Amino acid sequence: MVNGKSMVKFILNNKTIESDLPAGTTVLDFVRYHENLKGTKIGCREGDCGACTILVGEINDDSVKYRSMTSCLMPLANANGKHIVTVEGINRPNNELTEVQRVMVDESGTQCGFCTVGFVMSLTGFFLDETEKSCEMAISSIDGNICRCTGYKSIERAAKRVSGRWSAVSGQKNSENNLDVAIKKGIVPNYFSEIKEKLVQLKQETNRPLTTDHRPLFVGGGTDLYVQRPEELIYASAENLFDDADLRFIEETNEFIELGASVTVTDLLVSPVMQKLFPNLYKHLKLVSSTPIRNMATLAGNFVNASPIGDMTVWFLALNASIVFNNNREIPLSELYLGYKTLAKSENEFIKMIRFRKDVQHFNFEKVCKRTFLDIASVNTAISLRVSSPTVKEEFPNHDKARAHAWATDTVIVDAHVSAGGVAPIPLYLKKTSEFLRGKEISDETIFEANEIIQSEISPISDVRGSAEYKRLLLRQLFIGHFVELFDFKPRN
Ligand SMILES: Cc1cc2nc3c(=O)[nH]c(=O)nc-3n(C[C@H](O)[C@H](O)[C@H](O)COP(=O)(O)OP(=O)(O)OC[C@H]3O[C@@H](n4cnc5c(N)ncnc54)[C@H](O)[C@@H]3O)c2cc1C
Ligand code: FES
Ligand code: FES
């Protein structure tokens, strides 16, 4: 996929496509202007509205796994060897409606209709993806779609109704045969059953993403790059890392969890390894962007974009993670950031792997935005603590706050890593605060003294996300919130 001019081959709905268009062309422009499939709408072109949502299927563990994505931010290169599904690819003959489309109509979930295709694609994706088939997850699947006229209640009712019918047929648990059930129930057409074979064939014909002889621009999911430099990206000399199989793994060794650089936020969410280590994984990660963006957003993309409020960066800083480059140079993630968007990395280096110690004991992530979902943080923070007594608050089943408090004050912090975003030009590993916490009891004194150190480590500025004073106060509250959340600790003042 270099310099625009190399062959991209994929299945679009029920048709095999071979294109020598610039590989940086967005899938949205390709389907609308080159294939004349106008069902996919153009709204914001920034991943925010969901009007352009498509489904992307690829072979994974011997079956075709589908995820929703925003086609406005997806380069054609990232379609290579995959099944791309637009609304035309799920439509039934003779103007019959699919079950998802029918329920949207029945529940008055559509008015002008501009957003409707996006909602239908996201909800259809829900039936094919790896999430639990519960009502909550059905509603969560449309978290990246915006409607300006209907009001969301009718759309939520549609999501509830269609997921309720599914549960009645095949139970709530995500099952291996989602695709079979979806075909049987008319959620997707019969030709989907032949896609696996076609993709296997295609895989033999399509090579892994190529490298470039020019100064490379590394592209992951494109969710930052295509918002920042959409025109330039079309013709850019790019190295597409998203589909590099060597960068898409989550593995557990004796000491570490190792993750490929192109692991997406959704890959984390559905990973049994991560679920085991982080009981609040869903609660934390649903605060990050939206379903289609999480399906595209890679960890390395978040780190290298170097936003001071990057959620995954703050998350992994608190895990004291390190990053490994393609030349095997390994540095702590915290040492990647030299100044605002200035990185300790040469132009030719790309991140290959992320690694953190797996003896995570108590981890928490907090994020405050102007609105709860699909928004970037005003301030975010994460903490990882190891304490002398591994007993956790579940020991106090009746929320016996006094006992929990007594336990916590008897407990010494053995190891601590704290991070914060939105309070400096870079995402911050709070080194002095982390050092201070080690060896201390969990107490009012410790927490309030630690906050004094935090305040000396940060340098927030006033901007659209809040005044500098507000961000200082917010981080203080969120830091205390970590102890409330992890230990039911109730500070006295
Ligand atoms: C609607 C919307 C909502 C969002 N919400 C959030 C949010 O809530 N929280 C949040 O943190 N972010 C959010 N983002 C930002 C974005 O989704 C994340 O930063 C994402 O992780 C970027 O990953 P990517 O693979 O898409 O990066 P890309 O856009 O592909 O790349 C970003 C940068 O990383 C570089 N890069 C990519 N891979 C590598 C690699 N392996 N080695 C070296 N460099 C590499 C690229 O060259 C580029 O400089 C949002 C974006 C959108 C569009
Ligand atoms: S056009 Fe709005 S998300 Fe793509
Ligand atoms: S029905 Fe008009 S924007 Fe949703």
Using brief descriptors, characterize the structure shown.
5-stranded antiparallel beta sheet; 19 helices; globular; about 500 residues; Ubiquitin-like (UB roll); alpha+beta; binds flavin-adenine dinucleotide; 2 domains; binds FE2/S2 (inorganic) cluster
Structure description:
The protein has 493 residues and is an alpha+beta fold. The protein folds into two domains: 8-205, Beta-grasp domain (Ubiquitin-like (UB roll)); 245-487, Uridine Diphospho-n-acetylenolpyruvylglucosamine Reductase, domain 3 (2-Layer Sandwich). The protein is built from 19 helices and 18 strands. A five-stranded mixed sheet has the order 2-1-5-3-4. It has a five-stranded antiparallel sheet with strand order 8-9-14-10-11, with no helix packed on it. A four-stranded antiparallel sheet has the order 15-16-17-18, with helices on both faces. Strand 17 (413-421) and strand 18 (428-429) form a beta hairpin. Helix 2 packs across helix 5, helix 17 (431-437) runs antiparallel to helix 18 and helix 18 (444-457) runs antiparallel to helix 19. The radius of gyration is 23 Å and the shape is globular. The N and C termini lie far apart (59 Å). Bound molecules: flavin-adenine dinucleotide (FAD) and FE2/S2 (inorganic) cluster (FES) (2 copies). One FE2/S2 (inorganic) cluster binds at residues 110-116, 147-150.
| SS summary, helix count | 19
Strand content range? 15-25%
- Helix/strand class: alpha+beta
Shape field: globular
Assigned CATH architecture of the largest domain: 2-Layer Sandwich
The stretches of 5 or more residues where confidence is low (pLDDT under 50) are: none
Q: Say what the CATH topology of the largest domain is.
A: Uridine Diphospho-n-acetylenolpyruvylglucosamine Reductase, domain 3
Query: CATH class of the largest domain, anyone?
Result: Alpha Beta
